[in-house]
Amino acid sequence: MAMLEIRDLNVYYGGIHALKGISLEVEEGQIVSMIGSNGAGKSSMMNAISGIVKYKSGEILYKGQPLPTAANKVVRLGVCQVPEGRLIFANLTVYENLKVGAYLRSDKDGIERDLKRVYEIFPRLEERKNQAAGTLSGGEQQMLAMGRALMSKPRILLLDEPSMGLSPLFVGEIFKIIEDVSKAGTTVLLVEQNAKK
Ligand code: ATP
Questions:
Q1: Residue 180 Cα, ligand 1 centroid: separation in angstroms?
Q2: Which of 6, 21, 51, 94 is most exposed by smallest CB count within 10 Å?
Q3: DSSP class of residue 40?
């Protein structure tokens, strides 16, 4: 059984048919990438999975069961999105942003362990933990957005254009980290314009 299955999903914004009958399957442990140009509907698909955008028809199944359409329930099940443009909290520190990622958790020890792990994956975040997140570089903000998502202890990570706006060096680093996160047991669905990567 697929971990995540999307069947014939359609999203409309008023009269605009933004996502046109997408179907895909993500097996546990896989990294599945969807490639599409500007306006193809990639973010609409991710936001529909996350419960941020309502879909008009189709199905989203998580481990064979319909995925709830309320965002907080989706996160509780372990489906967590790193949004396009990162959407970090600019006025909070790096550490505070990471703590926000664990908002729905109450296992203090587990949260501490995962914070350590995030700092191991992204040493740069530990160096800058007391810095306001808005002062980070683009690449560092992408790291923070991924770190924040990892703090929710996701079973599947949804990455919306992680390479957007990053220098080639950072793009390489981010994709290497995506592989590492996958190897450590998190399933990944990612959408990109960067087809080569
Ligand atoms: P990009 O790579 O440029 O981010 P995308 O593939 O992620 O594009 P979406 O952001 O899903 O594409 O947008 C798909 C289509 O839906 C576009 O034509 C966009 O203009 C339109 N759209 C997206 N959000 C809205 C909205 N809130 N209201 C109206 N139209 C929207």
A1: 30
A2: 21
A3: S
Q: How far apart are CA 191 and CA 158, in angstroms?
A: 8
Question: Ligand 1 pocket check: which of 42, 164, 189, 190 to mutate, most ligand atoms within 8 Å of Cβ?
Answer: 42
Residue 196's pLDDT band (boundaries 50, 70, 90)?
Answer: confident
Q: How far is CA 140 from CA 18, 73, 158, in A?
A: 31, 28, 18
- CA dihedral (177, 182, 187, 191) in degrees, to 10, reads 40
Q: What is the pLDDT of residue 195?
A: 83
- 79 vs 3: CA distance, rounded Å: 10
Atom of ligand 1 nearest to the CA of 36: 6
Output the CA 11–ligand 1 centroid distance in Å: 10
Phi/psi of residue 65, each to 5°? -110, 150
CA 121–ligand 1 middle distance (angstroms):
32
Distance CA 166, CA 174 (A): 9
H helical segments located in 17-106: 42-50, 71-76, 94-101
Tell me the two tokens of residue 170: 């950072």
pLDDT at 99 over 90: yes
pLDDT for 130-144, tens place per residue?
A: 999 999 998 899 999
**pLDDT tens by residue, 20-43:** 999 999 999 999 999 988 889 999
